[in-house]
Design the sequence.
C-alpha cells in the first residue's frame, strides 16, 4: 500500500525524491521519509503526517550534493504513523524501505536482539534493515547480504536498499508487491508506480517476484536469487506526464470524473468494429466465452461493484450463471470451480492482494482467468490467461471513478460478445447494442454538464450523518457503488439496500427526514421500486429519486428528482453513477474532507 522511490544518477536528488513521493502519495499518506547519501554518510529525514511535514523538515537539504537516495510514503500496518515508524529504516550499514509485511518479524527480532541489535520502531520492516546489516558484517558484500537476508524473511515485499559503503548503488527486490525500474539517460529509478518517474523517462522494466535489481547511474543489472543474470525487455509508458497532474482541477477525483467520456471512448472505440465487439488486442478466443459453463467474478470494493453490474448484464444477455465473489471471502472458502468455468477478475491497480490471491486459487482449480485491468504489466495482468485493459491512464484519486466506468463498459462488451458467440444475439442486435455503447460518451458528457444541478443537491444533503440508497437489480448494483463513494470520501454513513429487502428489518431505521436516494432506471422494475420509495415516504423519509423519464411522473412525491437520459436498461449504471459520483464529490468538498486522500485509505490495497 506504500509508495516507494529510489534514484541514482547525476541530478541533485533531494527535491526529486520528495516530489516523486508527492506523485505516489495516493498509495499511502500517514507518514513519509527519505534517506540519501551526502558527504559520505546516509542522511535520513522522516515525518509523521502528510508530505508537507517532510518538506518542512527538508528545508535545509534541498541544495545539498546528493545523487542517490530512497523515499517512502507509508500506510501503517505495524506501529502507528509516527516519525520513528516512518521509513526508511536504518541499521549501522544499511538503510531500506519496504512495501509489504514481514510475517516472521517477531522471530527475526528475537534473533537480532540476541545478536545485540536494538530497535527504534515498532515496525516489521526494521528487522529487515538489521538482518541485512547482520549479514553485511559477515560477508562484507552488499548483494550477498541482501540475498542471505531474503532467505530468512517470510512475507510480502518490495524493498529498496542502500549501503553506507556503496554510495552510488541501490539494490531493490520484489516478492508480492509492485516494483518498477525507470530507465533514464545516466540515471535510473526504482518505484512502486509510473507517476514517480514519468517526468524523467517513459522506459521501464516490470520486476517479477524473486528478481533483484542493482541500480547504478549508468547501468541496471537484474539477477535471480542465485545471482544468475536475467534479460528483461523494457516497456514504454503509453500516457503523458500531464495525465498524472491535476490540470487545473482542484482535485484528481473531479478531473477523473470529467475524463470519463474520453476514457469510455479509449476503452470501447478500438474494440467496436462493423457493429461488433472484437477483443483482438487481448487475443481472446471466442471458445472461452462460448464454452464456459458458469462464470465467477472476483474483485474487491468498487471493482466488485463493477462485477455486480457485469453479472446482471451477462446473465440477461447470455443466460449463463454468474457469481460475484468478494475476493477476500472467496479465499477463505474451498471454491468449487472447475476447468469448465470461467473466472473474470476485475482490478484497476492489478495489485490488490486479495484479488491476486483469489485469482491464483481459481487457476489452481483449473479455471481459465480473464482479467479486466487498468495497469499494464501489473501482477494480476501477468497472472491471468487473458487481459482486457481498460486504458483509463493513471487514476490518482483514491476513490475510483473513471476506472469503474471503464470496467463496466468492458463488462458490457464481454457480455455482448459472449451473447453473440453463443448465438443469443444476431448481427442486427449486436449492431444495436454497440450503437448504444457508442452513444455512452455523449450521454455521460451531458450529465457531467449538469454538475451545477448536482452540486445544489449536494448542498442540501451534506449535513446528514446517515443515508440510504435503494434500488433493484442493476439499480442495486449502482447503489452499492454510490453508497461506497459517499462514505469513503465524505465519511457520511450510508447503506445500499436492495429496495425490496428494506421492509425485512432495516425499514425500522427510517424515521422523519432520513435521506433516501432511490434509483429507478430499470424499466421493468419501475412500479415495484416506486412502491418501495412510497413505503419510506409514508415514514417521512426525505427522498432523492434518480430515474429515467418513464418513472418521472410516478415519483411526484420525491423531494428531489434527477431525470437521466433514456437508454437501455443494461447500460443505465454508466449514467446513474455520474450524479452519484458528483454528489459525493461535492458533499465531501462542502464538509471539508480531503477528497483525494480520504482518512485511513490507500489507492492500492496490497495487504490482506
Ligand atoms: C473505491 O473507490 C476504492 N478505492 C476501492 O474500493 C477499490 O475499488 C478496491 O480497493 C479495488 O481496487 P483495485 O480495482 O485496484 O483492485
Sequence:
Amino acid at each position: 500500500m506504500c509508495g516507494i522511490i529510489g534514484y541514482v544518477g547525476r541530478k541533485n536528488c533531494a527535491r526529486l525524491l520528495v516530489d516523486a513521493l508527492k506523485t505516489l502519495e495516493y498509495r499511502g499518506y500517514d507518514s513519509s521519509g527519505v534517506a540519501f547519501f551526502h558527504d559520505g554518510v546516509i542522511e535520513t529525514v522522516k515525518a509523521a503526517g502528510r508530505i508537507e511535514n517532510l518538506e518542512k523538515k527538508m528545508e535545509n537539504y534541498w541544495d545539498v550534493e546528493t545523487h542517490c537516495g530512497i523515499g517512502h510514503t507509508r500506510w501503517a500496518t505495524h506501529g502507528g504513523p509516527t516519525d520513528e515508524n516512518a521509513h526508511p529504516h536504518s541499521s549501522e550499514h544499511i538503510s531500506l524501505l519496504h512495501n509489504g509485511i514481514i510475517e516472521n518479524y517477531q522471530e527475526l527480532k528475537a534473533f537480532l536482539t540476541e545478536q545485540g541489535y536494538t530497535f527504534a520502531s515498532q515496525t516489521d520492516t526494521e528487522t529487515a534493515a538489521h538482518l541485512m546489516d547482520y549479514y553485511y558484517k559477515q560477508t562484507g558484500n552488499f548483494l550477498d547480504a541482501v540475498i542471505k537476508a531474503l532467505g530468512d524473511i517470510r512475507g510480502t515485499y518490495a524493498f529498496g536498499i542502500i549501503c553506507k559503503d556503496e554510495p552510488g548503488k541501490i539494490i531493490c527486490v520484489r516478492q508480492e508487491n509492485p516494483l518498477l525500474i525507470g530507465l533514464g539517460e545516466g540515471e535510473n529509478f526504482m518505484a512502486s508506480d509510473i507517476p514517480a518517474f514519468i517526468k524523467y523517462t517513459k522506459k521501464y522494466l516490470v520486476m517479477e517476484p524473486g528478481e533483484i535489481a542493482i541500480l547504478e547511474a549508468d547501468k541496471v543489472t537484474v539477477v535471480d536469487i542465485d545471482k544468475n543474470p536475467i534479460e528483461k525487455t523494457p516497456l514504454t509508458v503509453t500516457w503523458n506526464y500531464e495525465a498524472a497532474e491535476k490540470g487545473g482541477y482542484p482535485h484528481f477525483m473531479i478531473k477523473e470524473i470529467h475524463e470519463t467520456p474520453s476514457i469510455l471512448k479509449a476503452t470501447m472505440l478500438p474494440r467496436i468494429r462493423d457493429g461488433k465487439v472484437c477483443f483482438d488486442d487481448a487475443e481472446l478466443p471466442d471458445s472461452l466465452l462460448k464454452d464456459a459453463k458458469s462464470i465467477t467474478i472476483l474483485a474487491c470494493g468498487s471493482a466488485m461493484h463493477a462485477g455486480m453490474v457485469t453479472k446482471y448484464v451477462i446473465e440477461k444477455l447470455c443466460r449463463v450463471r454468474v457469481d460475484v465473489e468478494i475476493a477476500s471471502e472467496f479465499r477463505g472458502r474451498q471454491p468449487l470451480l472447475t476447468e469448465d468455468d470461467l473466472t473474470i477478475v476485475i482490478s484497476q491497480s492489478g495489485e490488490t492482494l486479495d484479488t491476486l490471491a483469489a485469482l491464483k486459487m481459481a487457476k489452481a482449480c483449473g479455471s481459465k482467468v480473464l482479467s479486466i485491468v487498468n495497469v499494464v504489466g501489473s501482477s494480476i495482468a501477468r497472472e491471468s490467461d487473458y487481459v482486457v485493459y481498460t486504458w483509463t491512464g493513471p487514476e490518482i484519486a483514491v476513490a475510483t471513478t473513471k476506472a469503474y466506468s471503464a470496467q463496466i463498459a468492458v463488462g458490457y462488451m464481454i457480455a455482448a460478445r459472449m451473447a453473440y458467440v453463443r448465438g443469443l444475439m444476431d448481427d442486427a442486435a449486436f449492431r444495436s447494442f454497440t450503437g448504444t455503447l457508442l452513444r455512452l460518451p455523449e450521454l455521460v458528457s451531458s450529465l457531467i454538464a449538469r454538475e451545477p444541478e448536482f452540486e445544489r443537491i449536494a448542498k442540501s444533503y451534506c449535513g446528514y450523518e446517515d443515508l440510504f440508497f435503494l434500488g433493484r437489480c442493476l439499480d442495486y448494483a449502482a447503489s452499492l457503488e454510490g453508497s461506497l463513494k459517499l462514505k469513503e470520501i465524505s465519511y457520511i454513513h450510508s447503506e445500499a439496500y436492495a429496495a425490496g429487502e428494506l421492509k425485512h428489518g432495516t425499514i425500522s431505521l427510517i424515521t422523519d427526514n432520513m435521506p433516501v436516494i432511490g434509483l429507478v432506471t430499470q424499466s421493468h422494475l419501475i412500479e415495484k421500486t416506486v412502491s418501495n420509495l412510497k413505503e419510506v415516504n409514508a415514514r417521512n423519509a426525505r427522498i432523492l429519486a434518480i430515474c429515467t423519464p418513464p418513472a418521472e411522473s410516478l415519483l411526484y412525491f420525491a423531494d428531489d428528482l434527477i431525470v437521466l437520459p433514456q437508454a437501455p436498461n443494461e447500460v443505465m449504471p454508466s449514467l446513474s453513477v455520474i450524479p452519484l459520483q458528483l454528489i459525493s464529490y461535492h458533499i465531501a468538498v462542502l464538509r471539508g474532507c480531503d477528497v483525494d486522500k480520504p482518512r485511513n485509505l490507500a489507492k492500492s490495497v496490497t495487504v490482506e
About this structure: The mean pLDDT is 95. The chain has 19 helices and 26 strands.
